[in-house]
Amino acid sequence: MRAPLVTLGGLFGVAAVGILAWNYQPLASLGVAIALALLCVDQGRMALVDLNNIHQVTLADKRVRRFYWLTLITIVLELIGFYLAWLKLGMGTATVLISQLLFNTLAKIQLYPGSLQPIEPLGLQERSPVLIVNTIALGLIIGWQLGTFRLVAASLLPTMVIVYLIVKYLTSSSNRQSLET
Predict the structure, then answer these.
(1) What is the model's pTM?
(2) How many CA within 13 A on the CB side of residue 59?
């Protein structure tokens, strides 16, 4: 199981480098490319975490099997979007954001291997902040593609991704600490 996970991580890593290498000019493209490359690294990490969690819990549970297939489909769509972004930055970014919207709309559980309740139900209400951010980002990238407020979108998208990652990792660190105590 280790080799496929390393390969999967490598695919996301190559995609992140390619996004930046092919989209460093003009400035409006660079801002979007930075945002997407950061998101690519995070989503690559999340793909590995989700797949690892799935295999630690059990595929015998119907909810976990559904989550597993949803995770695989999301990973494939994300990779298509990240590699598409090399040549069509806006289309690739939109593909990634749509895959995130689909995942966060359809995922009904969250996995916590090793905890007392490893399969937690997670509804739309709990995922609503992420869905709202994904929708705003999708709106920005659509506007960017249409040529509307390109520089605004190019500066807002990396800012949104950075704030999202900071909040995500600070929140998950405090959640992890509260689960351990």
Answers:
(1) 0.90
(2) 8
